[in-house]
Amino acid sequence: MPEGPELWTAWRAYDPRSEPAEIFEAALYSDADLVDPLMDPLRPVDLMPALPPVRHGLKFAAVARIRGGMPADVALSKSDTASYHGGGIVEEIASLISLALGVRCRSGGITRTWPRGLTDPYGTPIEFHHRRPYLAEQAEPRPLLPNLPQSGNLADCAALLDSFAAAEGRQATALVRAARLFEHALWVAEDDPNFSWLELVSSLEVVALESTADQPPAERLAIAKPELWATLLTAGKDHAVSVAEELADQVKSTARFRTFMERYHPDPPARRPSVGGQVDWTKMKKHLGLIYNYRSKALHSGVPFPQPMCAAPIAEPGGCAMEVPLGLSASAGSTVWMAKELPMHLHVFAYIARSALLNWWHSITATPGM
Fold first, then answer.
1. Domain ranges of the chain
2. Is beta strand 23-30 parallel, antiparallel or unpaired with respect to 59-67?
3. How far is CA 266 from CA 33, 180, 283, 353, 355, in A?
4. How sure is the predictor about 70, in pLDDT bands with cuts at 50, 70 and 90?
5. Smallest Cα–Cα separation from 86: which of 6, 204, 187, 205?
6. Are 38 and 46 a contacting pair, CB within 8 Å?
7. DSSP-assigned letters across all residues of 158-198
8. How far apart are CA 344 and CA 274, in angstroms?
9. Given this model, what pLDDT does residue 129 score?
10. Beta carbons within 10 angstroms of residue 347's beta carbon
């Protein structure tokens, strides 16, 4: 039975001395140029740049070649959603590249296979898995994410992919889920910045939850809701522990988010606007609490993130984008927000989210097991 996502499972099962059960290629799309191949027979995945097209915007940017895949002995006798994230192995690869390089990257599906037993060294082209993803055009004169790299070096993914393969299955699943949310947040930002905000916060929640998973449920519930825990104990400890297992992951999500970000949030970016346009990094705890509150309102009350936080940032003459909406206040229609209610622009939080996820990714030190 699989213990982690498909790429992790395939990596653990891969033996470069043996013929793989299957080989296939998938198209990777991006609006960045993906350069420098990552090719090593000791890894089950090769990443190969496509020839750069003579155009900007969305392009067929690279190919992922996968040797091996999911084992066929998946038991169908009971439900198992422990590693589910809504995609397959090629979506995992694309999202991990997106997080590792900070670029938009999405799978276009499988385009070529090498079925076992067939002798054609060039493989068999296939079309029915392939689809060109849609990327919305920039809606405003200025981009909402002005700091996205225009190119990414695929070879730079090597160390992070190796650490992904070395992680425990549960950690690898959390990382893939977070990476998929991050990848989609970048992809939809120009078209739906409110949804991008939601997905960036959710990507951090995924790994924040995983970072506390080793704490016993009873202990988590006792700390988060001591009065409830005391009441449950009156019905017996076994009953209290059983309820804790159901509730522990749902309580004190804000505190869990803040604790995770206090540990993993990054230093300010190297390139910043003048002081008047900067986020006050010394008040990051307050800023993140406000952002999490907006996220809760958006999910539970249908109140979107403030419009100024979903608008494209103004750039200084030198080209550096402002980190915060300018002015003492801002309005959209009859709605008014004071400056203290607008902690940062979307591109700054995207930087913070990616950096925190990478910091957590780097912290994974589990010993590989086969």
1. 6-191, 217-352
2. antiparallel
3. 26, 21, 13, 9, 6
4. low
5. 6
6. yes
7. HHHHHHHHHS-HHHHHHHHHHHHHHHHHHHHTTT-HHHHHH
8. 15
9. 85
10. 22
Query: Mean pLDDT in the chain?
Result: 88
If you search the block for the tokens 């076994």, which residue do you land on? 238
- Sign of the Cα torsion 264, 268, 269, 270 reads negative
Contact (Cβ atoms closer than 8 angstroms) between residue 349 and residue 194: no
The secondary structure element, H or E, covering residue 74 is none
Two tokens, residue 10: 């395939």
3-state secondary structure 210-279: HHCCCCCHHHHHHHHCHHHHHHHHCCCHHHHHHHHHHHHHHCCHHHHHHHHHHHHCCCCCCCCCCHHHCC
Q: How many CB atoms lie within 10 A of CB 178?
A: 29
- What pTM was computed for the model? 0.88
- Give me the residue label for tokens 């002798």: 119
* Residue 61 buriedness (CB in 10 A; 0-12 / 13-18 / 19+): buried
Residue 132, both tokens: 């060109």
